[in-house]
Amino acid sequence: MDPFFGMLTLLSLALLQDHSSRDMRAVRRASIPVGTKLYHGSPDYLQLEDVPDGPAWFSTSPAVARAFSSRRPSRVFEYEVVEEITGLLLVSSQEDFVLLFGEGEFEEIAAEGNLELAEAVINKGFGGWIVPQNYPEGDDILLDRPEHHLQRTGRVQMLMSE
């Protein structure tokens, strides 16, 4: 079985109804199981020896991680989930953010930028988010405290100027 498909299968089984949210009908949580490989793109000038401080963005797709590291030269680091990651907001569409915050509040937060949106989701009690197929190449995963769940595998891809 394709590892990514297997992760999504486990992910779909881990969905929970969030009864503490603003709108209990639609806010869903997801988890990422132990053994899942995640990738993080970083400009070469950052000397990542271990797991980046959170909040930080990852993907199960090396291609998405390459896109995250927009400066060249850069590197893509591979990590393995060593402790299950739970409590992630599962985002299927922008409507999931609207249901969590309310339309007016979401628009204000989103206008401030991705980091502000990430911090607002974390302040609502989530450990980050996962947006399956946010990009044609794969998912977008935000983790609040990646150092609690990930270990670097040692595999690094160097990306040179294009």
Question: How would you briefly describe this protein structure?
Answer:
With 162 residues, the protein is an alpha+beta fold.
What does this structure look like?
By secondary structure, the chain is α+β, with helices and mostly antiparallel strands. 28% of the residues lie in helices and 34% in strands. The radius of gyration is 16 Å and the shape is globular. The protein starts with a helix and ends with a strand. The model is unreliable at 1-24 (pLDDT under 50).
The CATH topology annotation reads as Diphtheria Toxin, domain 1
**Major sheet attributes:** 6 strands, mixed
What is the CATH architecture term?
Alpha-Beta Complex
Strand proportion, as a percent range, falls in: 25-35%
By secondary-structure content and strand pairing, the structural class works out as alpha+beta
Q: List the uncertain runs.
A: 1-24
How are the elements arranged and paired?
Layout: H1 3-13, E1 16-17, E2 28-32, E3 37-43, E4 56-58, H2 62-68, E5 74-81, E6 85-90, H3 94-101, H4 103-112, H5 114-123, E7 128-135, E8 138-143, E9 150-159
